[in-house]
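Reminder to self: tokens first, then the designed residues, so the page reads top to bottom the way the pipeline ran.
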């Protein structure tokens, strides 16, 4: 009998239909479930950070397939018929995360979100080493895109000796004002950002170095 666990189901295509998440006529759906990071649960001994090759291990592959099936099952419950329309699927595990990031236990959101390592108890931008500043999901502003972005702003503020967060709230624009073409009826900031992001990629394809 398969385990029944909670799942996070999300569709990037639904939020941004004109994005590059899936080919035309298709949609991308992401599913996440909490799972055990212990090596023995995956049939491993030392883990990828220690150099253990796991990708062809039959015990690992069986466990990965079981979890993949659980995620598809959970997604199919909230999106009936989804299973019958899957044309491509890929799964990652805590072991995968450890392999690519060397994070302990395959943690995906920085250091452990425990009571002693939460909010003000997480690392600050400035360190005891002169000239070394920190930014990322392990900082006080938490994991995720927004948390990492805020940590970067506060790190820049620490370098400059300024309260950039307050300045931004007061209306400071950090960037090239000539590229801020917003305003007026029907202006879509997301669409404007996407157009700007496509320019460097188009130039790169043509072998041209694009300026930010």
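Designed residues (212 positions):
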């Amino acid at each position: 009998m398969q385990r029944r666990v909670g799942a996070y189901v999300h569709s990037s295509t639904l939020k941004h239909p004109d994005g590059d998440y899936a080919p035309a006529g298709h949609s991308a759906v992401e599913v996440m479930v909490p799972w055990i990071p212990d090596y023995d649960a995956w049939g491993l001994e030392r883990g990828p950070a220690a150099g253990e090759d796991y990708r062809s291990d039959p015990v690992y592959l069986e466990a990965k397939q079981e979890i993949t099936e659980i995620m598809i099952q959970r997604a199919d419950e909230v999106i009936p018929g989804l299973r019958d329309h899957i044309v491509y699927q890929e799964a990652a595990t805590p072991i995968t995360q450890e392999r690519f990031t060397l994070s302990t236990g395959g943690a995906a959101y920085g250091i452990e979100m425990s009571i002693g390592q939460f909010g003000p108890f997480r690392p600050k931008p400035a360190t005891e080493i002169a000239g070394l500043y920190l930014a990322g999901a392990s900082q006080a502003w938490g994991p995720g895109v927004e948390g990492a972005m805020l940590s970067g702003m506060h790190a820049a503020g620490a370098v400059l000796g300024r309260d950039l967060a307050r300045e931004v709230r007061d209306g400071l624009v950090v960037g090239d004002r000539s590229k801020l073409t917003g305003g007026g009826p029907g202006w879509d900031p997301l669409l404007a950002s996407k157009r700007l992001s496509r320019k460097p990629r188009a130039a790169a394809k043509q072998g041209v170095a694009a300026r930010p």
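Confidence is low (pLDDT under 50) at residues 200-212.
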